[in-house]
Amino acid sequence: xxxxxxxxxxxxxxxxxxxxxxxxxxxxxxxxxxxxxxxxxxxxxxxxxxxxxxxxxxxxxxxxxxxxxxxxxxxxxxxxxxxxxxxxxxxxxxxxxxxxxxxxxxxxxxxxxxxxxxxxx
Length: 121
Prior knowledge:
The protein is α+β, with helices and mostly antiparallel strands. The protein has helices at residues 20-30, 50-56, 81-91, 110-118; strands spanning 34-38, 44-49, 75-76, 95-100, 103-109. α3 runs antiparallel to α4 (110-118). The chain is globular, with a radius of gyration of 14 Å. The mean pLDDT is 94.
């Protein structure tokens, strides 16, 4: 089973120069716990998580580049689910960007890994 079979392809992103307020608003609107931070070519520069936001929420105008976790640990879309599971365990991840040819194509989280193990989809 490949990561691409279980990832979410509809993803919200933020740019590194955007204010933290943008990440907070998108997380609230889409009920997300993490957003990939990308450049104009959809290359993943980092990730901004609820924990990152909580540390800096008193500064909502700070640029995301000052708040994000970088580099982000990403998973290749063609990787086997077991490889993603190992990355999640090793790095204690909750969600991770999924890339193909170095560009963002989706996100995958612990629940999707559980679905893969249970054979859902």
